[in-house]
Amino acid sequence: MKVRIGGDASIEEAEAIAQAMANHAETDVEVFVGDDDEPAATSEADLSPIEDDLGPTEREELLREQIEDIELGGPEKYKERLDDQGKLFVRDRLELWFGEDGLAFEDGKFAAFDAEDRLPADGLLTGAAEFEDRDVHFMANDFTVKAGSMAARGCEKFLRMQQRALKTGKPVLYLMDSSGGRIDKQTEFFANREGIGKYYYNHSRLSGRVPQICVLYGPCIAGAAYTPVFADFTIMVEGMSAMAIASPRMVEMVTGEDIDMQDLGGARMHTTESGSADLVARDEQHARQLVSQLVQYLPDNADEKPPRATPKPPKRSPEGIDSVIPQEPNKGYDIRDLIERVVDRDSFFELQPEYGPEIVTGFAHLDGRSVGIIANQPAERAGAIFPDSAEKAAQFAWKCDAYNVPLLYLCDTPGFMAGSQVEKEGILEKGKKMIYATSEATVPKQSVVVRKAYGAGIYAMSGPAYDPESTIALPSGEIGIMGPEAAINAVYANKLADIDDEEERKEMEQQLREEYREDIDVRRMASEVVIDEIIPPSTLREELINRFSFYEDVEKDRPSKKHGTVL
């Protein structure tokens, strides 16, 4: 506010007027004397609360005491057991995740406040917080209250949190440590329309809408075990967490099998055999660190693009890419050695490294842009695609597509594995899922033929028929129905068997192999414009950066339909 007073006023009078008017009008004031262009006095409004003799009443003090009691959690003896298990009390866990001031608010502290038993927050904390500079919804079980079990009031809080996430489009963190539903209270929540069953309905609706990330801190049994498997990404803590459809005691009762919790559903089992978890953390701090890395590659929801990171050069020079790839098609090497020469330094974040290891999946930054990488791993069973690795790749591609993360396929595979065992394990069914996910993805895709691209492997790895924005090859690339050895055996076995002279037979076999190799060489494919380009390996990083940048806003439509029939 500007005020002009008479020219005969003194500076002291101008200052007094400025201060009085600033306090009265609650705004900053400038006072000008006479015709002066510059103010003689200025004063800022004092907007601090007006002190009076009013303060909190006994009613508020009582409420604060009740809140403090709720925040203590369950009985002290149960809190003492957490130390023995290497676990944090739930409110200390929230402070680890969000910091002392990171919690925006908590809902439902007074849930089950009037229960006959003391049930602080009904054993479940829900609310909103800031995590790595983004807003998230969270839920966290309090294991000191009935072993983190679920009942009616906590169930209502959980559902409300999920329903709000659907409205806000913000990610959800599930910090799980629950023994399941309270059996003695099942009539209040089990089969109700708004009971535990609705959890998984809401999980399904949230799936692909916002990232759902789950960390397990203890044994989660029965219904509690479905939240981690419904989540997009699940992290288990070594020696601490487990999940199973039934407890070891129940398993023994039903089947007679005597098994401990870790063997039944521990972190190592689920990250190597079932594929139900993505990563194993060493401890609680490491679990948070892993999620902190993960969210760097993801948007808040399906309507947004992933955040851009600060571009960095690769850890190792792209000049060495061709040297990493052996000349011999059947010689193994670690595809990660190639990846780290392509992506930004230390940005590759691998998921499910021990499950289906014949395929490597993970996020990375490429010139700061998030990409999802699906790469055959020649160091594991020659990079052949097995049922587990096919399913792993399918699920990863599907998640990347849901959250607008472009896909980079690095193909070096002899194709899908054959044999009676893999047929029993569903190689056709799971291979179908991989091809389906590749076909349905609408994000920008780049396919690189690194070396072998045999059989249906070129289909699953987003070859020319699968609508990639580009199919490019390195000079080591080969594309064919099968490799030379298998092809010669399949086509010329009888002809070769008719040659009695061993040396002559070897010469003929070598000649046929070389002729076949010429037929599948990528130069022939490039000549026929099957692939888009053959590039010097040392330019692969630059080539991919340019192609992903150019096709960043490409739009792809799926056919008009309700949904596909492949699950």
Explain briefly what this protein structure is.
The protein is an alpha/beta fold and 567 residues long. The chain is built from 21 helices and 20 strands. The chain is flat.
How are the SSEs placed, and which strands pair?
Layout (H helix, E strand, L loop, with lengths): L1 E4 L5 H15 L3 E5 L7 E3 L14 H14 L4 H9 L5 H9 L4 E5 L16 E8 L2 E8 L10 H17 L3 E5 L20 H10 L5 E5 L2 E3 L4 H5 L2 E5 L4 E3 L3 H8 L5 H5 L1 H8 L4 E3 L2 H11 L26 H4 L10 H5 L9 E3 L7 E8 L2 E8 L10 H16 L4 E7 L6 H5 L2 H14 L4 E10 L2 H4 L9 E4 L4 E3 L3 H14 L4 H19 L1 H6 L5 E2 L5 H11 L17
Parallel strand pairs: 1-2, 6-7, 7-8, 8-10, 9-11, 10-12, 15-16, 16-17, 17-18, 17-19, 18-20
Antiparallel strand pairs: 2-3, 4-5, 5-6, 13-14, 14-15
Helix pairs in contact: 5-6, 14-16, 18-19
